[in-house]
Design goal:
disordered N terminus; elongated; 10 helices; 10 strands; about 350 residues; alpha/beta; about 15% strand
Length: about 350
């Protein structure tokens, strides 16, 4: 028996060709690829990260804005006051363009830093008040320069330094140092406790002398400052020329000591003269006028001194240089023997 076909009350839907579906899928894939190549997620903030209400814009110059996400929070005194709109690059800096609520007034000199809520937390921009607050505030379009911003330590740099610390063997050296310290400490618990109590008492005593330590540090700072100012003099002290002079110092001191000893000996030898000095003075006061008379010229000598000088210069010195004796008569027992004496003197060569 043949069954009759069952017809529904709705008309049947015609089927699309399979090739049409393939072409539609290809066009959709190409469109998504083109859109994906021009889409940068960092250029678009997540919903809810902006600031509601009217805002004004500030430009923050940083040396680096690595890992700062789009729409990052801007905080002041711990509260959210704005958000990051965009980042642009300059020749020497990276500029963060932020939006700040109009009801937040920031004084000029405000500093900006990159901070994190935790080690692996999100990075945000912290606005810090200046050390001296003035009456002038930042306006729309103002810029906080590089001198007033700090990118802070990046987590990548921290991890790299930690890796260098571990890989360089610092941990192993620290472990070896702890082992050596344990070897030097006493094994007796009571002795170790006494040693720790002594160290604690010493530290407490040192803590009670903070003022003395401060004075010591201040004196040390003044000394180092003075030494730095005397750098040239100290350099000369340690030079070769100063060393040569220093080697001569013992010889100089020896010569001075010899002079002192000689002067001491001379003084001891002249002790007998000290009681007689008053009499010597009175004698010189009496003799001086007899020897020399006052003269108008310091180069002219008058008086007995002039006579003695004339006698010595004109008589005594010529006679000593060329003695000449004129013998007029020689007699023996009242008899004149001049002829015989003259003949005798000529024989010995005394008379020519």
């Amino acid at each position: 028996m043949r069954r009759a076909p069952v017809r529904s009350g709705q008309p049947s839907t015609p089927r699309l060709p399979r090739r049409l579906f393939e072409w539609c899928g290809l066009v959709l894939a190409v469109a998504m690829l083109c859109v994906g190549c021009s889409f940068n997620p960092s250029d678009h903030a997540m919903p809810g990260t902006g600031v509601g209400g009217p805002t004004y814009r500030l430009n923050l110059e940083f040396t680096s804005l690595l890992s700062l996400p789009a729409g990052a929070e801007v905080r002041g005194n711990g509260a959210k006051v704005g958000s990051l709109r965009a980042i642009t690059l300059d020749d020497a800096s990276a500029i963060a363009h932020i939006d700040v609520r109009v009801d937040v007034e920031l004084p000029r000199g405000t500093r900006a830093e990159l901070r994190q809520t935790s080690v692996l937390g999100d990075i945000y921009i912290a606005l810090l008040p200046p050390s001296e607050t003035g009456s002038e505030t930042l306006r729309d379009g103002d810029t906080i320069g590089l001198s007033e911003t700090d990118p802070g330590p990046q987590i990548e740099d921290v991890l790299a330094r930690m890796a260098d610390f571990v890989n360089a063997g610092s941990v192993t050296r620290l472990q070896d140092a702890i082992v050596e310290l344990n070897k030097t400490l006493p094994t007796d618990v009571a002795e170790l406790r006494g040693l720790s109590e002594f160290a604690s008492a010493t530290v407490n005593e040192a803590a009670g002398e903070v003022d003395a330590l401060d004075r010591t540090l201040e004196a040390t700072a003044r000394l180092t400052t003075r030494l730095d100012a005397m750098r040239d003099q100290l350099g000369f002290v340690f030079s070769d020329r100063a060393r040569d002079r220093l080697e001569r110092v013992p010889q100089f001191m020896t010569a001075v000591l010899n002079v002192v000893i000689d002067v001491s000996t001379l003084t001891t030898g002249l002790e007998w003269l000290i009681p007689r000095l008053p009499h010597v003075r009175s004698t010189l006061e009496t003799v001086a006028p007899l020897v020399r008379e006052p003269s108008a010229s310091p180069h002219q000598v008058k008086g007995n001194a002039a006579t003695a000088v004339s006698l010595t210069r004109n008589k005594l010195i010529p006679f000593l240089l060329g003695p000449d004796v004129n013998i007029t008569e020689v007699s023996v027992a009242g008899q004149d023997v001049s002829a015989n004496a003259l003949f005798l003197l000529k024989m010995v060569g005394a008379v020519r």
